[in-house]
Amino acid sequence: MKKPAAFALLIVLLIILLAAASVVGSVKIPPGEIMSIIRGGGDDTYRRVLLGIRVPRIVQAAVVGMGLSVSGAFLQGLLGNPLADPYILGISSGAALGAAVSIVLGLGTLGTQAFAFIAALATIYLVISLSRLGPGTGGTTLLLSGIAVSTFLSAILSFIMLISHQQMSGIVFWMMGDFSLISWNEVFVTLPAILVGTLIMYLYSKELNAIIMGRETAEHLGVNTEKVFGIILACGSLVTAAAVAVSGIVGFVGLMVPHITRMFVGPDNRVLVPFSALTGAIFLVFADALSRTLIQPAEIPIGIITAVFGGPFFLYILKTSKTLK
Amino acid sequence: MEAIRISDLYYDYPGKPVLKDINLTLSAGSFTAVLGPNGCGKTTLLKNISGYLKPGRGQVLVLDTPIRQLAQRDRARIVGYIPQNTSPGFGFTCRDVVGMGRLPYLGRFQWETREDREAVQGAMEQTGTWHLRNRLLGALSGGEMQRVLVARALAQQPKILLMDEPVSHLDIKYQMEIINLTRQLCDTIGITAVAVMHDINLASRYCSQMVLMKEGKVVSTGSASTVITVENLRNVFGIKVDIIMPHRLVVPR
Amino acid sequence: MKSLRKPFLLLTIVAMAVLLASCFNAAPQPSEKDTGEPAANTGGAFPMVVTDFEGRDVSIEKPPERIVSLAPGITEILFELSLGENVVGVTDYDDYPAEVFSIPKVGDFQGPNMEAIAAQKPDIIFASTLSGKNSMEALQRLGIPVLVLEAKSIDQIYNSIEIIGKITGKTAKGDALIADMKERMADIQERVSAYPRKRVFYIVDTNGNFTAGRGTFIDHLINLAGGENVAADSEGWAQYSMERIAEKNPEVIISAAHAGNMKALYRLPGYSGTDAVKNDRVYVISDDNIISRTSYRIVQGLEEIAKFLHPEAF
């Protein structure tokens, strides 16, 4: 199938999914009611449920899905590692630590979001600074620095969980990813950040293509690789930090979506990125719908749903990598 | 006309001097081979010419302009560089790869124009790779891949072509193909080419100028008859050879 | 020398006997704070056999003087029955009354510490099944009577007080406590009966939106206090979706003491449109333990909840 047609198909699929997701949930809203609400009327309670709780959540899932997928695609290109994900440079450990501190201090949702966001950015800054100790800001150096910082922060996190076992379940819950606390406030703050971040990264798609061929090659093609690294890392971190701050750690999306999309549309980031964005949005809206309907009125944390998809995904990669050169 | 003039060039890697007192002049349209044992600084010289590295002392003039004074993009419009090692391309097609040669001409918000597409096609036709355009780079033979990389450099529409060991790993057929192609480009469109090579005989057959290096210094430069002598080869490579005329064929004794 | 040796030997033997006897008798005597209560003996009822809540028959030889309590609820009851000085071991979870902080800890969140328990030489252990099955077997291997009085209902709380009173010889005190509890509970129920039931939602933790569903103590208390637990369609400790909360529209929201910042609640989707938030009827329990711990203070918990629901009745 030609690429423009496939792209259009994905857009249609996303729209259909958004509509379908709005219809399901732990509160059954009759279709007639939904029509009334769309027209501006409708029962107050149903209105609140649909427009105040369900729709912002679905939108957030789409936005986060898009953001994580695009960040993942760019990071995979930058690090030259198709198994990289947006959290690989330590953002998840940092954010989790920030959230844990906030939860233990009892600072409420806003506090947790703010702490997670700031901690995430601080962590990436630390990782990049430390990587300068190694031979140049190559992919491997960054990766090593990320793993080192990640491990250290996870240790601190484990300790905090141990000494505050009353809040431990709250912390664990946050870490598994959660869209249940999303309201329009979160959407209004994260949507512009994620949108702008992904757009800026997208503008550097062709430079990233060159970097994938080799940093030196890219430099000789006129690409200031240091600058491009910096911009992509900054934007990617911003996008990921924003996503993690409001929804916890949603794993596998940033890894699986670009990887699978690449198998279909190729590595050219000018094509890969928009396709990943759409696919990621579709996937997460779908996963979120599952998370809030399977055991209603309880919810399966979204991170568990994505992990359930993640396992078979890796098995599939294992199987097909034998056939790849 | 001088395409490249290098004056009093010194270059050090941290804690290790590599290039010492290099003075070279390469005329436009020439095809120069840089020869010498491994580690003598051939690649470093090439990277100083391209402007990738900044000289410790001295100056590199390319087309009468100090190459380091140009912006990186402008450098890329003049100098096409083919590195020694290249990644297999992770699924990029040949056309994608050659298309990257147009990067120095594309603006931030620009996608490829017709002009760019024509440049890509032209470069691929010149290198005889147009029929490979939809194949994956990683699926090609060594010779084909190298020709595609030459096409990429050509897509930059450069005046200078720098090649770091372009044929060392190829079958003899492809070695001759690439070097022949380079010579043709010099003769037909006036590109100035500089190639780091190991095969002395191939170099002397196709290159109008030779540079022989040892331990960071230029031992000899000029035409093949000046540079390729028994004395020089023994001095630089530590080998005893016979030179068989009229082809100036170097044969180990 | 022979004449001197005999009395000397006698003296030594007597001294040693006294020394030995005083070692075994190191436990503090139960205080005689309560009047009108004969010390220890309940008229020859010992040894007695009591059946604990696990259906186990446990034989009690005499009123216990060194008590280890692994259930904070039982600890509270013990102190209320003036047996505080007999308590020689508690857990990290114990925090009421203040005296417990100076009592040696023999259990933490990982379970009871067998060595620490044995070191206190107790003659009875009150255990809870929270410690887990393995602990039960290990406890019993210590050779000390183990009693499980883990109440699952208010009636069982009364029952546990009764049993404790019986085996420690504090029957009168126990009966008085039970009577007091019953009276206060009846009073509360009567006061609120005049008013229509209020829809209530209880928040255990905002992370994950955990509530107390049907069958929990809190659910029971809400009902007694003249309320209707909107989360009764879920069972036990359950997660509740924001959508359902909005749909059920509780009139009163009660939160556990550590559930999180209540001001933040007003912004959360699902909560923000409810009658409870609109009318500012969001309350925080003063102490989680008065509604979840199986102690006599459960009445206090009921009272607090009732006052949240129907302030006009008090």
Give the class of chain C from helix and strand content and strand pairing.
alpha/beta
Bin the strand percentage of chain C. 15-25%
N→C terminal distance of chain C = 87 Å
Number of E strands of chain B: 12
How would you classify the quaternary structure?
A: heterotrimer
Taking the alpha carbons of the first and last residues of chain B, their distance comes to 40 Å
Key terms for this structure?
heterotrimer; A: 325 residues; mainly alpha; ABC transporter involved in vitamin B12 uptake, BtuC; 78% helix; C: 314 residues; alpha/beta; Rossmann fold; 6-stranded mixed β-sheet; 14 strands; 39% helix
Descriptive overview:
- The complex is a heterotrimer of chains A (325), B (253) and C (314).
- With 325 residues, chain A is mostly helical.
- Chain A has a single domain, classed as Orthogonal Bundle (ABC transporter involved in vitamin B12 uptake, BtuC).
- Chain A has 14 helices and no strands.
- Chain A has helices spanning 3-23, 31-38, 44-78, 91-104, 108-131, 139-163, 165-175, 184-203, 205-213, 215-220, 225-247, 253-265, 269-293, 302-321.
- In chain A, α3 (44-78) packs across α12 (253-265) and α4 runs antiparallel to α5.
- The longest helix of chain A has 35 residues, at 44-78.
- Chain A starts with a helix and ends with a helix.
- By secondary structure, chain B is α/β, with parallel strands linked by helices.
- Chain B has a single domain, classed as 3-Layer(aba) Sandwich (Rossmann fold), CATH 3.40.50.300.
- In chain B, 34% of the residues lie in helices and 28% in strands.
- Chain B has 9 helices and 12 strands.
- In chain B, strands 6-7-8-3-9-10 form a 6-stranded mixed beta sheet, with helices on both faces.
- In chain B, β1 (2-13) and β2 (16-27) form a beta hairpin.
- Chain B is globular.
- Chain C has 314 residues and is α/β, with parallel strands linked by helices.
- In chain C, β3, α2 and β4 form a beta-alpha-beta unit.
- Chain C is elongated and about 95 Å long.
- Chain C has 2 domains: 48-168, Nitrogenase molybdenum iron protein domain (Rossmann fold); 196-313, Rossmann fold.
- The model of chain C is unreliable at 21-44 (pLDDT under 50).
- In chain C, the strands form 3 sheets. In chain C, strands 6-5-4-3-7-8 form a 6-stranded mixed beta sheet, sandwiched between helices.
- The chains are: A mainly alpha (325), B alpha/beta (253), C alpha/beta (314).
- Chains in contact: A-B, A-C.
- The interface between A and C is medium-sized, with 38 and 30 residues.
